[in-house]
Amino acid sequence: MSAPSNSIKGRAFGDRMLLALVILLSIIMIAPVLWVIGLSLKENAELMANPNSVFHAPYTLKNYINTIGTSSVFRWVLNSIIVSGGLTLGTLILSSLAGYGFARLNFPGRNILFVIVLFGLAVPEQAVLVARHQIFSMLKFHNTYHGLILPGLSASFGVFLMTQYFRAIPKELDEAAMLDNASRFKIFWKVLLPLTVPAQATLGIFTFLGAWNDYFWPLISATKKDMFTLTVGMASTQTNFAQSEGIGFLMAQAVFAGAPILIIYLFFQKYIVTAVSGAAVR
Amino acid sequence: MADQMTIRETAAPAVGVRVPSANIYAPQWRNFVFVAPFLFFFTTLLILPLFWGMWLSVHKADTFSTGRFVGLDNYVRLVHDKVFLQSVWNTFYFVLLTVPALALIGLFLALCLNRRTRTAAVLRTLFFSSSVLSVTIVTLIWRIVYIPNVGLLSTIYGWFGATAPAFISDPSLAMIGIAIATIWWCIGLPMMLFLSALQQIPQDIYEAAALDNANRWQTLRSITLPSIKRTFILVIIIQIVLQFQLFGQAWLMTRGGPNNLTKPIVLYIYDTAFRRWDLGMGAAASEMLFVLILIAAMAQYLVTRNKGDQA
Amino acid sequence: MKMNAILLAAVSAGAMMLANPSFAATELTVQRFFGACDADFGTNTDVSKAVGECGIITSLINKFNADNPDVHVTVTTVEWPGYDQLTAQFASGDAPDIVTIHESVLSDYQSKGLLLPLDDVLKSVGVTPDAFTDAARNGATKDGKIYGLPIDSWTMLYHINMDLFKQAELVNADGTPILPKSVDELLAQAEQFKQKTGKPYFVQNLANETALFTRNLYTYLFQQDSDFFADPKHVELNTPEAKKVVEMYKTIFAKDYTTKGLDYGGAINAFLAGEGGVQLNGTWVVGDYNAQSETNGTALNKGGYAVYPYPQLFDGAHAQYADGHTWAVSAKEDRTAEQTAAIGKFLKFFTDNNFDWSRTGHLPAVKSIIASDQFKALPHRDTISAVAELGRSLPPEVERQFAIQEIIGEEMAAATSGQKETDAALADAETRINELLANL
């Protein structure tokens, strides 16, 4: 056994090493973002001449003013809000109803249907994408909000989550009401739904973030600039730096595009973290 | 909806001969109403396209004309297509690059930041914050890190008079470049999952260990790691499923280049269906991806089911 | 009575607006590449002030909107070349009215019946096919009809930093650059350049680039009279001629005669910063580079900027790969007469203002402009006008030329960087292209 003092020293050294490593990792996390912000505050010509000019004045807000004046980034943020919000609302409604149905009620074929829905968890979006695109073409759904929202409504995850949650609620709560022959919807609405708010929050956050960050489907469905979501719009400006209005401008756009979701994250951090960890425990 | 429900409710006793009012858990068709809306979307937007895709995959179909039946031709072409095989390998390579790193770094961060200090809280916020950004912002940030001239890397290397590695264009580095950006983007979720697992380890076990004079390494090895083994496997599987679907990063950073070395399966599907207009073959590639993901999902199911057995 | 009259007037006014949508300006949707530069030219209608492809096209469309209050054009800017998006739009029945399409790509869409033949529309605004140069007209004509309004002919060029060429002693007595006449000369001059200046001879965008490789290959295959697309459904690339070209670029790469790891934008910046002698880039940057060379303190201002067609390195035909940009019009059944008329106006506007577009460096598509003093007076046109005769495209029957370009570029990139053997790369390119063409 080593002397206690020694072990404490060793511990302090080890702690410092760990701390250094964590600090290094956090620098890696934050440096690219600071670089982006730095570039966004510089004149393009100056950057091209010397990238080190990021570290000293003059700084300018010109790129931001140009973004406000000419970029479609606000329109794209709005589209993303409509699509993500619509999808979140729709998912919450459908999943709660179905979760209640599967967990609390019985109907012919319930179990087999639930297995089929579970199977849906294993179907990646990409596997149905080609066919879905063709079907939406026939229905003339592309370049519309519902065209962007509808595919997400078929995801099973929410139903799975809500079913699990409804099952966990003690049966005594609604059994009495059911024996009284109260309306099933009333029971669902008045008795059980209020109890599921935490699960709603988890599901809502996941759905919203997922929709906000979705890229693949909007890429092939929203092909008009006015219908671009933020992800597609940002992608459309970045693929060829040379053809665009300069790196500073692009970076200012990126800051505009990234800021709303980061601010939302900071505000709702507690809920988001609970939601993520909550999903993990399950 | 509510009105409809009440009407059905009052109608029910009339036909209630078969359904004794006491047996509230007997199967009743009216209960189906609750799951019907979801099932409608599920069937039309997932199941139907799934079968439609299978149908397409055995047809020679292009974007602008209806196809003809070709049997398994598309699949045969697919397994003979060097680019497809390359893309399958690329996908596995990418998973291999990212998943262990995500699990290990995530675990390391969780172990370090699992304390009630303010600094730890701030750092947790920081490490998770990148996860909320969308893929296009992440790739924009990392292209700006990697690009020659005004890139962050080339600037830093420039201070030492060195040339930065060409992370986007060098054939041997391109996938690693994408993997680094991906790890940066996705590190938050594994960290959070590990943190919540760590917090569920009962504190008294640690106190007992402290009494036994166990050092930190011993505690970690004999208490902490065994308690989160299942979370570790869960993280690995979740990440495999997630990273298997790589698309955005590769498409936006390298377009799958140089010479298809960073083209994942999903990008191959996109290329085939929407750039080569070969819907049938794109659908066939989709089915292959589906099978691969199904296998991973099965593994996940087995792991979570075992958990249920033990609980 | 009075009340009734007002009501009647209101109703009929409403009815008129419903019946006649041109009461408001006719809406046209235009989709184009050439980049976005709204910050600098978003409201500029004085075309003469604009420089470069993006600035000039943005200003031209602004001017069209200002000149034609009865038409309103909304522009979607897509990343080059934008065909993924266009295909998706056509598939979903949401194509823009007017869209930029390369001559080499027109037949992909035309063969599916997605484009409107423009002969009647052009006739109605007084534009006749013989107004265009032969190259432009032939490139835009498919099955005897015009499917795109040609706006230019373009090709790749040697953009030269004369300051570095002087340092490398690669300048003739008359001040013109010494350019190679054979592969050996090219390699020798590149070596000399590297020795004297310490910089690579070529500035190339090789990072995830396919178009440049392919255009280079086509050019030097033409110069060897290699008929690699004798059958438009079948390419022959695993040939000694192709091997010669790939081996040349492989040597250039291996001996550091070229920049490496730069993307398109990076290559432009590197050339403008004086980091190499010759940039391989298209006609479209001539205007930009010339403007740079006239700005004090730039690398091109030091010793001057010169631009030439690709040198003739082989004994065959004097030729180099060329293509052209067109405005194509989507075929739509529900288009009103007003909209068609507005499209005619737009196309006529671009024909009339073809000179401004040619200031980019592209060769004009309109015959009268190429012969005009105004055009000849533009800088460097004395050296690059030759490409009008040199320009050659792939046989027009070859479909999916952009997909083919990508395959060739990928394989050539692998071969020149030494990642793959030349023979294997050419064989793979050939197999992949033929597989593509066999399964259209």
TrEMBL record, chain A:
* Domain of life of the native organism: Bacteria
Keyword Membrane present in the record's keywords: the answer is yes
Q: Where in the cell is it found?
A: Cell membrane
Give start and end of each ABC transmembrane type-1 domain: 77-268
List the membrane topology term(s).
Multi-pass membrane protein
Bilayer-crossing residues are 18-38, 76-100, 112-133, 145-166, 187-212, 247-268
The record's principal subcellular location, in a coarse class, is membrane
Keyword tags? Cell membrane, Membrane, Transmembrane, Transmembrane helix, Transport
Family that this chain belongs to: Belongs to the binding-protein-dependent transport system permease family.
Spell out the PANTHER family in the cross-references. ABC TRANSPORTER PERMEASE PROTEIN MG189-RELATED (PTHR43744:SF12), ABC TRANSPORTER PERMEASE PROTEIN MG189-RELATED-RELATED (PTHR43744)
> What is the protein name for this chain?
Carbohydrate ABC transporter permease
Organism expressing this protein natively: Rhizobium herbae
UniProtKB/TrEMBL annotation, chain B:
Q: How does it sit in the membrane?
A: Multi-pass membrane protein
Task: Give the subcellular location.
Answer: Cell membrane
Domain of life per record: Bacteria
**Entry keyword Transmembrane helix:** yes
Q: What is its main location?
A: membrane
Q: Which residues form the signal peptide?
A: none
Q: SUPFAM superfamilies given for it?
A: MetI-like
Q: Where are the transmembrane segments?
A: 32-55, 92-113, 125-145, 173-195, 231-252, 283-303
Similarity annotation: Belongs to the binding-protein-dependent transport system permease family.
Q: Name one Pfam family in it.
A: BPD_transp_1
The protein here is known as: Sugar ABC transporter permease
